[in-house]
From TrEMBL:
GO terms for cellular component: mitochondrion. It comes from the Eukaryota. Belongs to the carbon-nitrogen hydrolase superfamily. NIT1/NIT2 family. GO terms for biological process: asparagine metabolic process; glutamine metabolic process; oxaloacetate metabolic process. The lineage of its organism: Eukaryota, Fungi, Fungi incertae sedis, Zoopagomycota, Kickxellomycotina. It comes from Coemansia asiatica. Its EC number is 3.5.1.3. Pfam families: CN_hydrolase (PF00795). This is Omega-amidase nit3. Keywords: Hydrolase.
Amino acid sequence: MSGSMKLALVQLAVGAQKTANLSNARTKVVEAARMGANMVMLPECFNSPYGTQYFAQYAEDLRATESSESLRALSSMAKDSGVFLVGGTVPEKESTTGDLFNTCTVWNPQGEMVAKHRKIHLFDINFPGRMVFKESEVLKSGNEITEFSTPWGRFGLGICYDIRFPELAMIAARRGCVGMLYPGAFNTTTGPMHWELLLRARAMDNQIFAAACSPARDIEAGYQAWGHSTVVDPYARVIATTDEKQDIVYADLDFKLIQEVRKAIPIYTQRRFDVYPDVSA
């Protein structure tokens, strides 16, 4: 880990037109870069509405940049802005099987893809009388843990519901990652209960940075995103957040805090892997 880095979360207003969504994303990524961001993150399903009825309609073949309108746009955004770009998620159609995935790609400042993460834990919930949602009716789950390197250190990736499973962040932290990044789209049922709580928990348990980027809320949409894109530091303090509207959230990540908190609260040297297993082993 080295120095400090400016992170920008683009809480994007997403509509039904993919071309308009890609154009809006480009405008905001360029704006964030002009404000000094070194890394920019887009939200889950940044190029399409979120919902099981939309995944197949908006899905793209992500085998190569040339085969995907959204990947070409992301590569261009990263290269033209000179930033690391965590490209939210895009509905992916696997060309040989036809399976659908919810997939995040990461791009370096040269416009090259450096990571690809398929959502591991699918969002299946049932709040009787309030909300029932089952991604598993349409999507397949990924099966790989994903990390990527930057000049400031390594970062782990998760997508939305992945944040509820602490093992991903634990493994990333034990492997030396300085932060966890979660493109997500919590809703107005789960968001006020758990969005900030989960981010702070992942940061606190592992003494790393944690950030989650949501779409802006569209009151006309069937699925109401919570918004409130947020960055949390290794002390589990919220250092940047917003409300539900389209916005860009900026946070300066001072990586010295990781060693500072680990010295003050030395859980890394106090763990008892003779008593319980190390999930990163």
